[in-house]
Structures are given as structure tokens and as C-alpha cells.
Specification:
The protein has about 375 residues and is mainly β. It has helices at about 15-35, 40-50, 300-305; strands spanning about 60-75, 85, 95-100, 100-105, 115, 135-140, 150, 155-165, 170-180, 185-200, 210-230, 240, 245-270, 270-295, 310-315, 315-335, 340-345, 350-360. Helix content is about 10%, strand content about 50%. The strands form three sheets. A ten-stranded antiparallel β-barrel has the order 1-8-9-10-11-13-14-16-17-18. It has a three-stranded antiparallel sheet with strand order 3-5-6, covered by helices on one side.
Amino acid sequence: MLFDLFTPFRGTAQTIQDYEIQVRDLERFANSYLAAYTNLFSSNFGFSLNQGWQGGAIPKKAGHISFSLVGSSAIIPINDENRYILTNQLYQSSNIQISPITPGMFTDAKGGAMNLFLLDPSTNNRLVNPLNGEYLSANFNMIDGIGTEVGVTPFIMPQISVGLGKSTEISLRVMPVAVGLDEGKVDISALGGGIRHSLSQWFTDEEDPDFTVNILFSYMRNKVKFTPNGDRFLTFNNDYFSTEGTRVVLSHKTQTQQALLFFNYRIHPFIEIYGHGGAVRQHSDLGSDGVFKLKINNEFIQDAVDNSSLEYADLFNSKIEKTKPAGGCGVILGHGFLKAEVQYTYADTHIASLALRANILKGDSSD
């Protein structure tokens, strides 16, 4: 949202509409850049968040309660194709000059440089300060990589599961986390649940068969909020412009729905293996809160323009929707009170999950 914008020289004042396209170009570039920078994370975090649900046979009894600690992460190989962003593939504008490449999110490289020039609306030429011949411009530092050198979307989340009887179980997950980094603060919140039901009970009279088939429906939603420290994110200060007072907070929201079939086989009282397959759908929304402020420092410019600052809200906004096949395998180790489960899933990328599960109550003696 634009409030104030400036004009180049007194006596040739322009209207805000003359400059609006230049700011809109900055918005379009910012959206294309941030979408490219966060693409590997945005495309896969929701998929990994909705994995790690129980495989194996489902307790028949109502009232069964178990508590789990579930960890999961996408594992995305970083290679020459996704290590850097080719900036010629981003939104292009004559008032924006950028480095040929800049790092993606998971590299250890420093962000490239970007220059924003003010153009004369009547000629589209870069405006020059007649006192020293310098272009009226501002320099941005693009975002550094976080240094992992492999794409990861890790989380650890508690889960509680309750048996409803007839080999049906519901599960609930919740996660509030805050992490401090050198680059800023990350707040993560997530909530979701799943329901699984044994299909094989309708096709066999065995009391405790070794081979079972389950169906799972699950839903997860989350929000990740990143509050930058500000020293290298959308900030600059030179003889002409500064961003004093800028406060931009990035937010990433996902919603995922999933349907899977599990084919379980108990090969030993302490070992159960399974394969699973189905589909998962993710809606990802990357946005920002706060205001980007651009102020004029140079006295010559302040004398030559009608207004001396602009404010711009809702700088970033991009969405990704994906529906992907999902499939993998897992193994459950243990019996009785404590079990460990390792699960691998491929859903757009590799996802590894580990869960420790404690069976708190066995449930009623009747279904």
C-alpha cells in the first residue's frame, strides 16, 4: 500500500501514479525472488509435517491410549540445479540491477547485491544528482543461505492417540516452538490430526492376524514466522535513502491433507514391517507482515521533491498448491509398553520419520 512518493526535481513535479509502476516492479521482483529462495522449503515442509503417523496393526479395544514423540524431515539433495538462483529467471525491470546469481536457502553462501534506481517517468532514464553525477539509487543485500548444504524441514512433535473400538484410532498433534538464530527468530506452530481404521477386520475372522490393511486420513496445518534481525534483510543506508523504521516479518503457512493405505506384516512379536501408499495435497502460502519504509536522506533531494518518504505493506505474497503421490515403508520394533518406529516416505522428495511410542492404557476388555 503506497502512501507517499517523491518527485525528481522541483518545477517538474510528477504524480504518485507516475512512480507507482516502479514500486510495483519492486514488489513483483521481491515476490519472484522470495518465492525462488524459499521454494525447496515451501514445496516440502507441509509434506514432511504430515508424515510419521503410525503404521502396523491397530488395537481393537476402545480406550486404548498411547503417547508418541514424532520427528520428521524432508531430505532434499542440493546440487548444481538448485544451489543458486539464476536471477535472469526472476522478474526483470529496468530500474532493478542484480547479481547474476544469488544463493538458495540451504547453501552457505552470502546473498548477492541488488541496486534499485529511481527513473524519470517521462524518459525512463535513471535520475542523476546534478551536483555529483551519481545515480539516485539504493543498494540491497539479498538473503544469505542458512548453511545446511542439504535441504531439510525438521520438526519434533508430541502426539496422543486414542482407540475408539472396532480397530479405529484417532491421533492429535500440536507443536509450539520458538528458535533463535543469528539471522533472526523463528516461531513455529502446528496442529493436526489423523484417523486410521483397519479394513482387514471386515475380510477375516482371525482374532490377531499377522497381515493387516489399514486406511489413514490425516490433516495438518502450520505457520512459520521469521522475524529478521534486520542488518542484512531489506535494509540499506546511503547518502540518498535509508530504510529506518522498516519492520518486515515473513510468514509461511501450509495446509496438507493425506490419504494412505498401510499393508502391515508382523514377522516376529517384536518386529512389524509395512508398506504404505496414497496421495497427499499441500497448499502453501508465503507472505509478510509489517511495513517497508523508504526515507530520503540527502538534503538536495529533500529540497527537490514534494514528499520525502514512502511506505509499503504486504510486500511478499506467493502461493503453491501441489498434489503428489506418496509411498514408502516402515518398521516397528518393540512390544507392549514401548515401541520405536522408523518410516521412509517419498512425496515430492525423500522424507524420513522416527517415532517413540509409549502405550499408556490398554483399553476396555470389549469392543
